[in-house]
Batch of 4 targets.
Target 1
Amino acid sequence: VLSDGTQYNTATISEKNEAFKAIHIRLSQLKPQLLRDTFDSWFSAYGYSFDEKVKALSMTPDQIKDISKDTLCSIGSHTVTHPRLANMSADEQEVELSSSKTKLEKLIEKNVKHFAYPFGNHNADSVRLAENCGYESAVIAWGGVVRNNQKLWTLTRENLYENS
């Protein structure tokens, strides 16, 4: 039961997966400034903190620097606050895309050439801004065939899962 009264059945793995999807959809539709407070409100009774989860699941700056030194690795950016870009103004999107690129380039001391749209969510402004911000390519979230004439700022990507 979430603090807003929403209740999910979680007796089976299937029900747990459905509950996760439903909560994920609700959280992913929030503006970045509401995400932390909503997450903490819903889950604080269970001992979960947004900041602690982000810290536990994210690479540290030193880990990012280390992996970026590997010649087989390219570090791409993914925005600063992981919003649904299509729900934002072009100006807000530009801040997300350019700030993410700038911060990563400063950290790894290399040009960041690639971008991944959070949740694969994008619109015409997102695509135009990815190109204008200097990214050489950008990927959406859903797998598919990459064609010879496909725009480099709407490439498909394949998701990898632990049990694949």
Target 2
Amino acid sequence: MGRGFTNFQAGNQKKAIEEFSAVISINPNTAEAWNNRGFNRQLQGEFADTLKDDAEATRLALGYALAWVNQAWLLSTCRQESVRDGGKAVEAARKGCELTDFQDYNALKALAAGFAEQGNFEKAIGWQEKAVERSPEIQKTDEEKLLQMYRDEKPFRVVDISAE
């Protein structure tokens, strides 16, 4: 796990995926390894595999809020239209919010993104306002930009930074 995190932090997603896969081969019941491998796969643009890893992480640990939030964020904001599913995103984000007593700004942000993906910008704005309130000071500007997108009735899309 440590080597996986180190490679992730160094920006070496391929190696991180290998390391988290090694953890899974040793102990396939490690939800955190499934979640972390999925997140690195998402960064690599391997969206179908990400969804499989997210599903396994949440199956193994129903109370693992981060896995629900990561799944919701991908389903809401993926640049690949065929991956997005606002209904499933809202369900996953709501689970992440419930598990964090609606206090984690990332979970609230994922819920807002899910509603934006559905075209329900009124709810997206309401939840993103709560995300702004609960976000750390260093994140406020980014969260407020996202809020303005929803006010402009635009859903958020993750861009492919490797293509820029």
Target 3
Amino acid sequence: GVGSPRAAGFLTGKSDPATCASSEAGSRRASFDFPPINRDRAYDCIDVMRGIAEAKGASVARVALAWLLHQRAVTSVIVGAKRIEQLEDNIAATQVSLSADDLAALDKVSALPAEYPGWMLARLGEMRRVQMEAARVGAA
């Protein structure tokens, strides 16, 4: 979200399943795991962001911020930096242009699983749509 756009550093790309413990040593997340994240989905997002970052000559952290800034409902993000280099990288995210394909890949990998009753309403709606289509075709 806009208040912790990189999930307290997790979405910088410095973490991966093999090195998670060592990469988080000394970080805030090592002693206070907040905000809560689905690590499997986060690692999948990092993999996609890493590919985009390499193609654009940018950091994964920069792509994570750019992705958020590309969302229609977002006008600003709140960033935090311990070092000037981190602040400069955060600011440089405003210069990263993500293509429609980049955004689609990131949206797909980050999609939240459907929750009840939403998935049930969608299923019932689809069943009703099929019934209406069959009635329309039968009436023709």
Target 4
Amino acid sequence: GFFFGAIMPNWVTNKISASPAVITAMLNSDGCIDFNTIAPFPGDDKWNGISIAAEEAAQIVIGAPLSDHPLLASLEASNRSNFDIKKLSEECFEQFVGMLRNHRKCGYLHSMDFARKAWGTKWNACAQSHDVEKGIATFETAWSCPKGVLVELSKRFPDESIAIEFADEDIGCNCGSFILKNGE
């Protein structure tokens, strides 16, 4: 089957304070905050959803480690031991091959794999607003502050300071602030 994200994430509100040039660099041609303008996925995935079976097959082939979480690791190990590539539908098989091509090209199976590792969040910015003149951008991300993409943004503007504040919707956890300059 295909996985579209059945588990609802906690949302993290992110507030960015920086120069107008930095805020502008976060925007796509439609004027929306878009992490792809900062760190685009270097592979190819034009799929309508990610096949769990195709992803499991690709993880087996590349020797991806099992989860750090014992229960998830047990489930993953069981799924991998029972896997039969002949049971993949033609569409899933083609996605599996595409994931292997992506991994060979850029080290990531698909754009969500890339986003989780490179951006620090699984999806792009949402519930966003910005005021370029004031140097302020606010947006939400799934589960965590997108530190990876903000570090990349900071490297593009090595002489600029970028102030970040973030807070999870759960009160009292996964919140903080930091300042980036030249990716540090």
